[in-house]
Design brief:
By secondary structure, the chain is of the alpha+beta class. It is built from two helices and five strands. It has one domain: Alpha-Beta Plaits (2-Layer Sandwich).
Length: 92
Amino acid sequence: MPVIARHLMIHGRVQGVWYRAWTVETARDLGLAGWVRNRMDGSVEALVQGEEAAVDRFIALAREGSPAAQVSRIDATETPLEPLGVFEKRPI
């Protein structure tokens, strides 16, 4: 299966609700590489890279996110592959 990368902008109530921690745990469980970080505008940004089916599954799960999150939309765009290790949280 091909390896792909997607840049995600996640909007809604996604800061202060353990969304980033949920993202790291979920991405690692799916065997994905990449990163997640809060944005100054209240959104969350992520780069997710791995097998296409796993990336698609992650995006589907991310629409719900952590139990306290309320995701209004996810903007996903194709992005070039990067040499990444484990999935991690990054600072703003």
